[in-house]
Amino acid sequence: MIDGLFILSLGIFVLGVLLPLAGSWKDLRIFRAGSHLCTIAGSVLLGAISLFLLLTGNDVAWTAYQPVAGFSLSFAIDRLSAFFLLLISVVSACVALYAAEYNEHLEGGLRRNLLSACTNLFILSMVLVVASANTFSFLFFWELMAGCSFLLVMYDYSHSATRKAGLFYFVMTHLSTLFVLLGIVLLFSSTGSFALAPAGVSPVSVIAFLALLIGFSIKAGIIPFHKWLPYAHPASPTPISALMSGVMLKIAVYGLLRFLLDVFSPELWWGILILVMGTVTAVLGIIYALKEYDIKAMLAYSSIENTGIIFMGIGLYVIFSSYQLPDLALISLLSALFHALNHAMFKSLLFLTAGSVVHATHTRDIEKMGGLIHRMPSTAGLFFVGALAIAALPPLNGFASEVLLFISFFSSIAVADPLFKVLLFLCLGLFALTSALSAACFVKAFGSVFLALPRSPESGRAEEVPFLMLLGPALLASACILLGLFAAQLFLVAGFTVPMPDLFLVGLLLLAMLVLTFAALFFTASRDVRITETWGCGTLSQQPAMEYSGHGFSEPIDIIFSTVYRTKMKNERTFFDQKNCIFAEGKAGIRLIRVFEEYLYLPVARASYAAAETVSRLQSGCLDTYLLYVFCAVIAVIVFLGWLA
Amino acid sequence: MNLSFGLYLVLNTAAVLLIAPLFVSIIKKVKAWTQGRSGPSVFQTYFTLAKLLKKETVYSSHSSWVMRLTPYVSIAAVLVAALFVPLVFVPEPVGGIGNIILLLYLLALARFFMALAGLDAGSSFGGMGSSREMSISAIIEPTTIIVFAALVFVFKSLNVFDMFAASAAAGAPATPTLILLGISLFIILVVETSRIPVDNPETHLELTMIHEGMILEQSGKNLALMELSAAVKLTLLMALLLNLIVPFGLTTTLAIGTIAVAAVLFVLKATVLAGIIGLFESSMAKMRFFRLPSLFAMAFFFSTLIIIIEVFA
User: Fold this and answer.
1) Residue of A393, A438, A532 to mutate when probing chain B, most B C-beta within 10 A
2) Is A394 within a domain?
């Protein structure tokens, strides 16, 4: 019954792939709309199935295709898979609602049909990765997901920036597949099967774990493998950014969790490794986000930060498991999972509303926006909810998951050994810093984009987006609010007891205080209101140039963390006199260094290029030389085989 | 939710609202005395608030609903946060009220709105204030969380109510660990309430202002709400410090006699603390903004050391 429904939902997604392709004889909106309708229908059905499985705890398993023994495409859905399927379906449905309108405003004619088809295939591949029951089908659909997402990033291929981003993404995502492949092959060599079953403890399984960890880290955007995110997200169409950031990063998290829970028997140092990776990623991610003025790149960096937070939860889970503390381990794992869900909700909300803003102002530069709250009030309100959620403010969902992580950090202090406590303390401090910086980052984002005066003519002419582009984000925003308010109750329903404050009560108290204050002032205070010019020390009128810009806003943080940014300031002056009083001429400049690109990526790229150059000397193009190579190779093989025998 | 908790909600909120402006004035009075002035009356803040309520509210033509909503959210968040820190009577915690992390993030909620309101009118003063406030709050956060983690360790509970109940049961004198944590809490109090050496609450000069810059565009009843929420925040942080370190009089039983004694004792203790804050502020100059990170780094290492030495020894 359930597997039938699941296959039906897959069928609907396949229909969504075929429909716009079949309709590509003429540029008609109806085919694309049909495709998006398929996405929505498939997602709703999938969401219902996964919710049912999540709440009842039933498992479903079946084999779809088995060409030879031990080699099959088979699927299984347990509670963990069901959770991630729910995440995929909610985000996909809301994004499809948005895309149905947004894609029509894109350039590209018939390519838009391809966009809809590919989006459906992308979602389908993610669903199947999560539903995979063995490592073979996991890898197969993992690669399908990588391929589809590459095509989607390249939608706007006529721009050179997009081509660069696409290539960068292509290389990184295949590096990820390569490592995942290595891990899976190593596992196969040690266990002899593709099953997602315990692999035992052996040196090979440790190497396999490290390979898989790197593979999943590249896909999840863990620093230092993160560089593809701030390139790929701004380049791709908005619904794709939302899907990649909201969902695809979580598939990497799912992969890591699946292998940790089912295949490996984790040791303490694995947990410490994951925790440290997560902490470094979270702090550096938000510090880089604060510096960005491209709104989508900023959101991309913030995704990196949030993936770091999820990794911190997973790291703590492994650590507590190896210390035999099941209660704390469960809280940490739940915090990681819940944060994955919450991040999917608020980040796709933020990407979609940011996409609306970019659509209305034709720029991604937040310094050229401003004042949009008056011209796009609904978009502003929705973005505001997302900003509150991501800044981890109560009673929204971002706070609900971060408080769980805080609680597991706080409770760990009493039980771990001394050196380890120092590490945990450091991570806790950095986590607190991350969360406060993300509040600063989103004050900057909301302030620069929506508040004060427009800083460019386009921003002054912006108009509110159509209904469907508000409906999708609105659903996500309500999910953010509900997941926050009812977090404690949701955990009870799912059958977990966690020491979590009741945010619904807090929400009620906040509302009561608001209403009481309003009522008290309404009856006691003066109700006179005057609208006038902003006070500006006697200036006649307020100009956009007088506002605090986004760059200005993050200036203190730039300076405080200048060692992290490695900003280079240059200041050369010449003077006419010897006492350096009469200024002749001078140059000053600030150079922002892309640390990882310049110190890690480019050296690696140059080294591999140099290696290729060396190897290419062998290829002289002369037939005689090639015959010599073949001869030498044959001799070497004969000698090797003789030595083996 | 039982009757005593409901009673607590009403009474604690009323008490905080009533008493908060007093401590602001006491600090001002002490500062005036150290400067050789007689200073305003200790009831001046009440008069100012009453005056502001009668004034008209002026909005910038560029401002939006953020400006209009912020004073209400700010006071609501701070008042709910004040419920997490009982002044004189500690009831049994209900539904996570009193959670120390939630307390911290309710204050962050008020700050988030306040910073956005600073940017709303497009004035460069407001922007400067918001930018500095968010930067400072970010870099003090690790210290705050470490101190809170140490409190959680010492009292074996995440809940402020449980902590207060434990310290009330133990009574005085406080342990060395607690006194050292008290110093850290004092630093946090100074930073969170925008006082010298971090910020100067007295002036509107653009070189010094952080908090005052953010609320520069507020007027009339909205300004009154902002001033009141700053006062409530000061009171709740003072109560957190006092009820942990010198819990004399703090009661867990709901009886009029003990509560009246506790209330009198609390006002006395808080007056002394306000005097100390005033003296502390008078004894030093405001620090240059970019010198602050090193001060905070010192506070961070100081509190981490205390915790490592005292808590884990």
Assistant:
1) A393
2) yes
Q: Rounded CA gap, A109 and A112, in Å?
A: 6
* Helix, strand, coil shares, percent, chain A, to 5: 75, 5, 20
Q: Chain B: residue nearest A434 by CA? A: B138
Same domain, A610 and A511: no
A21-30, A285-294, B47-56: least confident range: A21-30
Interface pTM, i.e. ipTM:
0.95
> Which residue in A540, A560, A561 has the most chain B C-beta atoms within 10 A of its own C-beta, making it the best mutation to test that interface?
A560
Across A164-179, average pLDDT: 93
pLDDT in tens, A61-88: 887 777 777 777 888 898 999 999 999 9
Is A446 part of the contact surface with chain B (CB cutoff 8 Å)? yes
Facing residue for B59 by CB, picked from A430, A529, A548:
A529
Contacts B115 to A, Cβ<8 Å: 443, 447
- A581 & A610 share domain: no
CB < 8 Å to B83, chain A: 509
Burial class for A67, CB neighbours closer than 10 Å (0-12, 13-18, 19+): exposed
Q: Does some domain include residue A420?
A: yes
Report helix, strand or coil for B251: strand
Q: What is the pLDDT of residue B123?
A: 86
Give the residue numbers spanning the domain of A633: 595-644
> Quick check: A408 contacting B, CB < 8 Å?
no
Tens of pLDDT, residues A12-61 = 999 999 998 888 777 788 889 999 999 999 999 999 999 999 888 888 88
* Contact indicator for A228, A172 with CB cutoff of 8 Å: yes
Count how many domains chain A has.
Answer: 3
Please tell me whether residues A499 and A636 are part of one structural domain.
no
pTM of the model: 0.94
> Is A410 in Cβ contact with B97 (below 8 Å)?
no
pLDDT tens digit sequence for A437-487 = 999 999 999 999 999 889 898 888 889 999 999 999 999 999 999 999 999
From B122, B132, B152, residue closest to A542, measured CB to CB: B122
Last residue of a domain, one of A515, A540, A574: A515
Shortest CA distance from A546: residue in chain B: B124
The answer as to whether A280 is a domain residue is no
Same structural domain, A364 and A496: yes
Residue A633 sits at the chain B interface (C-beta within 8 Å)? no
Same domain flag for A416 and A492: yes
pLDDT(B1) > 60: no
Please report residues of B whose CB lies closer than 8 A to that of A444. Answer: 131, 134
Contact A521 B127 (CB under 8 A): no
Query: Is A298 a member of any domain?
Result: no
* Confidence band, pLDDT 50/70/90 cuts, at residue A618: confident
The two beta strands, A71-77 and A60-68, are antiparallel
B108 contact residues in A (CB cutoff 8 A): 391-393, 436, 439
Residue among B204, B225, B20 at smallest CA distance from B117: B225
Helix (H, G, I), strand (E, B) or coil at A584: strand
Is A407 touching B (CB cutoff 8 A)? yes
**Residues whose CB is less than 8 angstroms from the CB of residue A227 and which lie 6 or more positions away in sequence, other chains included:** A168, A172, A596, A597, A601
Round to whole Å and give the CA distance between A487 and A499. 11
Q: Residue A572 forms beta bridges with which residues?
A: A587
